[in-house]
Amino acid sequence: MIDTLLQGLLLGSLYALFALGLSLMFGVMRLTNVAHGDFVVLAAFAAIAITTVLPWHPLTIGVVLLPPAFGFGYALQRFVLNGTLGKDPLPSMVVTFGLSIVIQNALLQLFSADPRSLDAGTLATESVQLGDGIALGTLPLVIAVVSLACTAALQMLFDRTALGRAFRAVSDDRQIAELMGLDASKIYALATAIACALIALAGVLQGMRTTVSPSDGPLLLLFAFEAVIIGGMGSFWGTFVGALILGVVQQIGFYFDPGWGIWFGHLVFLVVLVVRPQGLFPRTR
Amino acid sequence: MSGALIQTRSLVARYGDAQALFGIDFELHAGEVVAIIGANGAGKSTFLKALTGMVGVPREAVRYGGEDIGGLRPGAIVRRGLTMVPEGRRLFPSLSVEENLLIGGFARRSGPWNLVRLYALFPILKEKRRLPAMQLSGGQQQMVAIGRALMSNPQVLLCDEISLGLAPIVIKEIYDAMPATTAEGMSVVIVEQDVSVAQRVSQRLYCFQEGRVALAGDSNALTRAQISAAYFGD
Amino acid sequence: MNTISSLRPEHSLTTEPSVSICAPAARAARHAAWVATGLAVAVAASLPWWGESSWMREFVEIACYLIFAMMWNLLAGYGGMVSIGQQAFFGLGGYAMLALGNFAGVNPFIAVPLGAIAAGLIAVPVSYVAFRLQGGYFAIGTWVIAEVFRLSFANLSVVGGGSGTTLTALRGIDKATREGVTYWTALVCVVASITLVYLFLRSKRGLALLAIRDNEVAAESHGIDVRGMKLAVYVVAAIGAALAGALYFLGNLRISPDAAFSVNWTAFAIFMVVIGGIGRIEGPIVGAIIFWALNKFFSDYGTWYLLGLGLLAILVTIFFKQGLWGWAQRRYAWTLFPTQRRLKL
Question: How many Cβ atoms sit within 10 Å of the Cβ of residue A21?
């Protein structure tokens, strides 16, 4: 049982990386990016494509992908998504839904439906021994550390820096923030840029941990979303914990039957939604 | 007239299909405190919004410091030294008191106002600076809103109904702080519901009525009767 | 600043269109359109006697797309609730119809509306969960719920689990009759759906719906039961989606969880509604026709076709906010189903 718990926590830490970007974009500009999971898959395939040309280790590729991902997110928000924001959630949803379909089919066309993965080398096979005969894979541990670091960094960015203040201000009251001289469209673009950088990292790590195929996106979106809701909106640590919980719940489900893990996660999500809709660790506004 | 810091000539403004202002002639000179009074819906807030770029007007409609600034984006106007304390305070709930003040300094120009000086002006804010801004009382929130505006070191401060919802003693406390702000030559435009406060605090006064200037003159020269007539429209 | 304002349709007290048409001519044109529609329905009803069976099958399929899209439009454009999970009720409708037909011995053609209602009523408990969320998160939350149904049915061996099962109740009937009656069922469902939605939106309830959509708080203060209305719309939309599902699998004869609860249904509905124009009754109709035509000519291109659809949806959202029909309506002031109230001074 301890083993299941630990595996669940490690799985959850990867989900946290998925969820942070979603939480950030929704928190700053109330934008729900339906293509969020597909961006993760896109990043994984981008890394896979690079490995066919350059013999780098996936982690290196992950770092190399950060700047272009940042730029992509900035441009996407600035020139496409900013125009869809407003009182009506539909335009942004339709555009991102359309993006989801475009990405999935473009990847299908380029890579076929076969699952692929990134060769993490020894990282994927090594493990760390913790007494009692429990061994934790090195890769999952690396993912957990990265996820923890990103959550801490993001929370600190929000709470302690001028940019974080700007994020919170435009999220609270865009009109008055602009009255203070803030440029909301650029700030939104920065938020999406950071989210996409996180997504790129998540995608590469996902590709190392398991296989990816072009149609994986929607399910990853649902995981990210469930993590955010379970954890409670308004706090990145909340999202992190929500993701851990989701991971553990799924792992417990997998333990009983391979077909039940995801279903069990959905169920727990719904229960939390009914019993405590504000999530477990909401930050009041 | 030359020498005016702010000048509008026949300013018109609309909210969607409805016209709110029907040709406002207005002037503000450096170092002045000017009040705008009028009933609800007279267009006072709309006028301030037109000055700060929150409502669109033609470029030539507003002249500030020798430049036509009508319709510019609010950020550009703040950087030129024209800052507003908005109606209803509109503090940022996710930010603490100090963070609200800091964000006011985002488009800061050079000038005397900074956190230290603000805390000297409103000591209670220093005490409560780490609290979420919305946890403060109405009067204290108003101080935060004013402080937030001062952080940009404006040349002209526009105050939109800052006494709304506050007890008289609190209103007095806030307006008592005004001389400290105008001492360095900052000009102020206040929009006020309370006519006696407006007269006491300002040198000149405009009375708006249904989107037009019904009365304009020196604050201490205007009689009660004149003001009533203009306020309610006869 | 380039902002795209809401995709929501205009409502009462709007200004006159830029192209002015004198009232009597407009009304006469509308009457002519109604007569033409009535004739078209009569001709369509006679199809089994002179048409090919492939036409009838195509119609049944378009009918399902159309009804599903209309209901999605009702929910999103009028109810203000954008859902990516309506396929939950589509699938439930299909399975309910199948269960009634296979296990309860109900005539499958009757089972279609019955199954639709039964499945649609499940929307009530579902709403207790779904209504905890708003906006974009509501949309994804409904998707999760649909996934729960999909995975649950995939584990239900009595209906064939993951590989699905067949509608055995229609085994005894000969092909021509079956296809004919299925076709008529589809025709009836389409006409009924359009009529009901139209009447509903013209009613007092419909106006209340618009008020809620535009400003919930204000509507509540005028005594409109916001929560009740939203629940009503959600249930109606669910019944409609279930109807489309029941009809689809009546025609398809085979059901499986992946086909029944696929998010593609909602994707198609979104596409049809966006292309046709959200919030207008004719929008989904136009969108369904365009979608069917695109399917006919391009679906062989597989992934390229879907990619194109996605791109088209994005472009129409950004550049034709009111959909293609909405744009045409603006330019030419066409209205087939007038639900706007114009203040003529």
Answer: 29
What Å distances lie between residue A181 and B77, B82, B93, CA to CA?
8, 11, 18
Q: What mean pLDDT is reported for chain B?
A: 89
Give the residue on B whose Cα is nearest the Cα of A180: B104
Which strands, in side-by-side order, build the sheet including B204-209?
B82-85, B156-160, B187-192, B33-38, B204-209, B212-218
The per-residue pLDDT string of chain B (234 residues; one tens digit each, 9 = 90 and over) reads 457 889 998 898 887 778 889 989 999 998 899 999 998 888 899 999 999 998 888 998 999 988 999 889 998 999 999 999 999 989 999 999 999 999 999 988 888 899 999 999 999 999 999 999 999 999 999 999 999 999 999 999 999 999 888 888 888 888 888 888 888 889 999 999 888 889 999 999 999 988 899 889 998 888 888 888 888 876
Q: What is the dihedral of CA C254, C257, C262, C266, to 10 degrees?
A: 80
Tell me whether residues B78 and A180 touch, CB distance under 8 A.
yes
Q: Dihedrals φ, ψ of C213, to 5°? A: -60, -35
Task: Note whether ipTM > 0.90 here.
Answer: yes
Domain of residue A198 covers: 2-275
Q: Where residue C14 falls among pLDDT bands split at 50, 70, 90?
A: very low
Question: Which of A32, A95, A99 is facing C139, going by the closest CB pair?
Answer: A32
Q: Does the pLDDT of residue C4 top 70, yes or no? A: no
Helices in chain C by DSSP H: which ranges? 23-45, 47-50, 53-73, 87-102, 108-121, 123-130, 135-154, 175-202, 204-214, 216-221, 226-252, 257-260, 264-276, 282-298, 303-319, 323-332
Return the SS3 of B35.
strand
Task: Judge: A179–B86 Cβ closer than 8 Å, yes or no.
Answer: yes
C-alpha distance from A110 to closest chain C C-alpha (Å): 10
B32-55+72-232: CATH number: 3.40.50.300
Rounded to two decimals, the pTM is 0.88
- Whether A105 sits inside 8 A of C310 (CB atoms) is yes
- Total CB pairs under 8 A between chain A and C: 143
Q: Please name the helix (run of DSSP H) or strand (run of DSSP E) that holds residue B157, with its range, or none.
A: strand B156-160
Which of B52, B94, B102 is the closest to A285 by Cβ? B94
CA angle A236, A239, A240 (to 5 degrees): 90
Chain A partners (3+ C-beta pairs within 8 A): B, C
Query: Which of A23, A29, A99, A105 should we substitute to test contact with C (largest number of C Cβ atoms within 10 Å)?
Result: A105
How many CB atoms are located within 10 Å of the residue A177 CB?
Answer: 26
Q: Give me the number of domains chain A comprises.
A: 1
Contact residues on chain A for C154, CB-CB shorter than 8 A: 259
**Which ranges constitute the DSSP H helices of B30-167?**
44-52, 74-79, 97-104, 115-121, 123-127, 138-150
The candidate with the shortest Cα–Cα distance to A116, out of A4, A39, A209, is A209
The answer to whether residue A57 is domain-embedded is yes
Enumerate residues 6+ apart whose C-beta is below 8 A from A84.
Answer: A91, A92, A95, C4, C317, C318
* Cα separation, B106 vs C143, whole angstroms: 41
Is A67 among the domain residues? yes
Domains of chain C with bracketed CATH: 23-163+173-338 (1.10.3470)
Q: Which two tokens stand for residue C29?
A: 């044109």
Please name the residues between 193 and 232 in chain B that touch chain A, using a CB distance below 8 Å.
none
Place of tokens 């009508």: B70
What's the sign of the alpha-carbon dihedral C83, C85, C88, C91?
Answer: positive
Burial class (CB in 10 A: 0-12, 13-18, 19+), A28: buried
Question: Each residue of A105-120: b (16+ CB within 10 Å) or e?
Answer: bbbbeebeeeebbbeb
Task: Report the CATH number that the domain containing residue A215 is assigned in CATH.
Answer: 1.10.3470
